[in-house]
Amino acid sequence: YRDPFVTDNSSTPSTNRMGAQIVLKGTTAGMKYQAQYGYSGQETGDTSFATPNDRVGGKLMWEWNLPLFTPKIELSRFTNNVEGDLARAQTVANQQKFSLLWAAPNWPSLSLSYARQQTDIFTRPEGPLSNAINTESVSANLSFLQGASKGDWSSYYKRSQSEFGENGLEEEIGSKMSGTINLLEPVDLIPQWGFTRRVNSQGTMAKDRFFTNLGSSFRVSTTSTLKPGVELTRDLNRFDALKTDKLSAKLGYAYLAMDDSLNVSLLGQYILNQRSNTRANPQIYDVSLLFKKDVRDYLHLNHHQQTLSLKIVHNQQVNASSPQTHSGQTSAMLLVSIIP
Predict the structure, then answer these.
(1) Would you say 262 and 293 are in contact if contact means Cβ atoms under 8 Å apart?
(2) Percent of the residues in the chain that have a pLDDT greater than 70, as a whole number
(3) Which among 153, 134, 133, 135 has a CA at the least distance from the CA of 143?
(4) What are phi and psi of 203, to 5 degrees?
(5) Percent helix, percent strand, percent coil in the chain, to nearest 5
(6) What CA–CA distance (Å, rounded) separates 250 from 272?
(7) Where are the domains of the chain?
(8) pLDDT in tens, 62-106
(9) How far apart are CA 175 and CA 257, in angstroms?
């Protein structure tokens, strides 16, 4: 289960949707299990009606914490075009994922995973099969901890094969390194860099992305933390000879009460410079505010977690060459979380 409020990206999409989800999880004899089932409605706003992105489905997860190894299994199935609109296609996706974590005291931890997904695309609900896409991926993650500092190195490879379509084989590879370096008692440096590459067998797609960012964390007090940072990304489309460079600055603030009863965080991002060899790009800034309160004293329920969360996000685009194209968006989300 992923809390939709906990995210490093404060920007919001230009669409809206409604949905519901139920999650059941527990532990027994070193084993953890979780089952979730949910529904997400069709997006409204800046989206194409011909593209159904409503979906219904669920996921089962199980893991076993052994002395040195932790195997994990995830199974999921999701279907879109839930309303059964005969004018649109329907997609059914089944995924199986197997992971193995090796962790020994005073040694780096290593995680290996393999995933396979079968995506069947039908011309309409209960109609003939128009395409089938088989996707396989492998990934590895190496983590180490040394005193107050830590580091991670992750890499993955993914390939997708279309059986009926003309896209053929598509491959993607990526790698990322990140770390947390404790310079002084209240100051941490958080560098990160990596790349991704996507190509297809037809030679019509060749996309690269390189990124690097330098974050930091200043513990102002036992309850407050400042998190400034800068990020540089370069996107290359070698097939169409396109290049986009982006430099952005981020500033975050977090407050966590001593008894964990109140959590307030503020995150802002401003794109200082964005250049493309094809067109002028607008300046973009966004800011998000997250307020999370423990409400056990008000609900008086016999549950482990009882929280109320509110997230407000604003995104603004400023085009210096054409003020008429300025656009902004504000959204608010409310979540009540009750976990046994």
Answers:
(1) yes
(2) 86
(3) 153
(4) 75, 15
(5) 0, 70, 30
(6) 10
(7) 12-165
(8) 999 999 999 999 999 999 988 888 888 889 999 999 999 999 888
(9) 36
